[in-house]
Amino acid sequence: MEELRSALQERGLTISNFPNKGRCLLTTRDFYPGEVVISQQPYVCVSNNSSTDSRCDGCFTTSNLKKCSACQIVWYCGSTCQKLEWKLHRLECQALCRLEKDRRKLVTPSIRLMLKLYLRKKLQNEKVISTTAMNNFKLVEVLVAHMSDIEEKQLVLYAQMASLVNLILQWPDINIKEIAENFSKLACNAHTICDSELRPVGTGLYPVVSIINHSCLPNAVLVFEGRVAVVRAVQNIPKGSEVSISYIETAGSTMTRQKVLKEQYFFDCTCPRCIKVGHSDDIQETAVLEGYRCTDNGCSGFLLRDSDGRGFVCQICGLLRSKNEIEKTVSDIKAISDKASTIPSPVYEQEAIKVYKMIENLQVKLCHPFSIDLMRTREKLLKEFIHHLILCLDCSIIPVENLSGCLEIRRML
Prior knowledge:
Blueprint lengths: L1 H8 L3 E6 L3 E6 L8 E5 L3 E4 L18 E2 L7 E2 L2 H18 L4 H4 L4 H17 L11 H5 L10 H18 L6 H14 L1 E4 L5 E6 L7 E2 L5 E6 L2 E6 L10 E2 L8 H12 L14 H11 L12 E3 L5 E4 L5 E3 H18 L8 H18 L5 H23 L8 H10 L1
Parallel strand pairs: 9-12
Antiparallel strand pairs: 1-2, 3-11, 4-8, 5-6, 7-8, 10-11, 13-14, 14-15
C-alpha cells in the first residue's frame, strides 16, 4: 500500500480513511475543470459479448472480427489486439477448451471476468506479467465485498458461479468461498465500460478508481478512452478535498437514488444533495423530475398529492388533477411501452418511432416538462430518428415521407 501512496503522491493524490466511508481519494494539490485526476488501465476486463452482439476482446470494436479458433468464445479484430491479450488468453483458452462446446456457450462475461482475475494473479505471481503499484492483486484483495449485506439468494448464486469457475480452472488448491466473495467484490467495484456515445461495451475492474467514493453532486466524472478509465474534474477541486464521482444516474429524486445505492452498493448516501431529503426544495425537485404536470398548459407548476386522496394539486395555480385520470394515462403508457419493448429495433425503426411518438404524446400530457421519463423517451426517439436518417443517407435517398423525421430531429435538437 505504501507503493500505491507514493505513486498517487506523484499525481497530486493520497489515500485516507473517513469514518463510515472507508478509504477515500484526497487531493494534495488543486485540480481544475477538465483536468485528469487519475487514469488507470483495467486489472481485468471483458467485452459484453452475446449471441447477437460480439466485440473484440482487446478494443471492443465490432468490425472485422474473427473468433478464436480454439475456444470459439473470444473474438479479436486483428493481430494487435490478439497479441495484447495473448499471455492471458492462452491460459483462459486452455481452460475453456476443457469444457464441452455446448457448455462453453454458457460462460457469461461475469464468469470470464473472474477467470481472468485468477489467471492474471497466477501470471503475476510467476512474473510472466509485471506488477506495478497500481496494477497488482493486493489492490483487489482489499476491496470491500459486503458479504454480510447480501441476501441468501444472491449468496447461493455466487456460490454456483464460483463452482463453475472451479470446474473450468481445475486448480487443486482453489478456494471456492474466496471466489464467491470476489464475485461480490466485482458486483460492488467493477465498472461498466462505455464508448463515446455512452453505450455499454464491456466490464472492467479498476482497483484504484474503485477507491473513489460516490456523491450525487460529484466534483469529477468517470469516462472511458477505449478500455482506460479516466477520471476528470468537472469543477475546481481544492487541495485537501475528497475526489468524488457518481455511481448512478443523478437525475432521479433523492428517494430513487437512495434506493438504488442501498440495493446495489449497500450504503446510505449523505452527500449535500441527499441530506436535504424531505426539505421543501427536495420535495419540489422530486415532483418536477418524477411527478405530473398541471392541467393548465400555461402553468409550469409542480403537483403534490391532495390531502383527501382525490388526486394531485398544482402548487402554483391550485388546480386539482384527478387521480383516476392520471392512473388511466399511466396504464396507457405502460401498455404502449410493453409493445415498444418487443419491437426488434433498429430493424423496424419506423415502427419504433411510431410507438415512441405515441408514448411521448401521452407523457407530454401527463408529466412535468422536465420529467425524467419524458426526457428518456425523447432520447430514444432521437436515436431512432438519427439511425433512420443514416440509413436513408446510405441509400442516397430521403423519401418524402421521411422528411418529417428530419424535421423532428431538428425540433428535438
